[in-house]
Amino acid sequence: MFFGKMGILRIWFFCVVWMLKRKLSIVAITTGICSLFVIGGMTAIAKTSNQSPDLAFGYSIRGNVLAEIFDDRQGAIESYTQSIQLQPKRAVTYYFRAKTRYKSGDNRGAIDDFSRSIQLDSNYVAAYISRGVAKSNLGNINQAIEDYERAIAIQPDDANAYYNRGIARLDLSNKQGASEDLDRAAKLFQNKGKTKESQEALALAKSLARKS
């Protein structure tokens, strides 16, 4: 049944995500839901200890809460690792752990996990883009551009891929290529209603145009 085992836990999680995406500021309600979620998640894990898929899901969701709401990155990484040990072929869990490692400053560890995600799902656009950003941070700009181009080949309307490729091209002093990518990113962001991101990309593109 939907409400059996992890059902309620799933509902709690999606409620929290819904609130976060809408940037709601009802602190008391958010805190209450998060607290219930963590307690419920730990209880569900205990009750489903003989069910690896459900248990793996529980660890993964607990990792999301620890990382995104409580900013407990080490705890989140440990939860993702436990999930991976139980379900090692779930690409999204490697992606979650990679993002958390990236935020912790571990670019190499993040790259390893993004690569594992891509091995499991060769069309994982977000993993290509995020791996590119981590590679850029290590100075591997050309490799980063290759990842952005893979993402664009899979999803030609991904604004983030164009934006990040534009920044990488700028790092290589390719102002024309950077300007074209940033202009493209601005239009794609605008099409998706992301006005702030669109304005930022457009401002950079115009700045490059004036300097060229």
List the helices and strands and how they pair.
Blueprint: H1 7-21, H2 27-47, H3 52-68, H4 73-86, H5 91-103, H6 107-120, H7 125-137, H8 141-154, H9 159-171, H10 175-191, H11 195-211
Helix pairs in contact: 1-2, 2-3, 3-4, 3-5, 4-5, 5-6, 6-7, 7-8, 7-9, 8-9, 9-10, 10-11
Pfam families: TPR_11 (PF13414)
Keywords: Membrane, Repeat, TPR repeat, Transmembrane, Transmembrane helix
GO biological process, one term: receptor-mediated virion attachment to host cell
Structure summary:
With 212 residues, the chain is mainly α.
Rounded to the nearest angstrom, the distance between the terminal CA atoms is: 62 Å
* Total strands: 0
Name of the CATH architecture of the domain at 1-88: Alpha Horseshoe
Radius of gyration: 19 Å
How many distinct helices?
Answer: 11
What is the CATH class of the domain at 1-88? Mainly Alpha
Largest sheet: none
What string gives the helices and strands in order? HHHHHHHHHHH
Structural class: mainly alpha
CATH topological fold name of the domain at 1-88: Serine Threonine Protein Phosphatase 5, Tetratricopeptide repeat
Q: Which range best describes the helical content: under 10%, 10-25%, 25-40%, 40-55%, 55-70% or over 70%?
A: over 70%
InterPro entries: TPR-like_helical_dom_sf (IPR011990), TPR_rpt (IPR019734), Ycf3 (IPR050498)
Pfam families: TPR_11
Transmembrane segments: 26-46
GO biological process, one term: receptor-mediated virion attachment to host cell
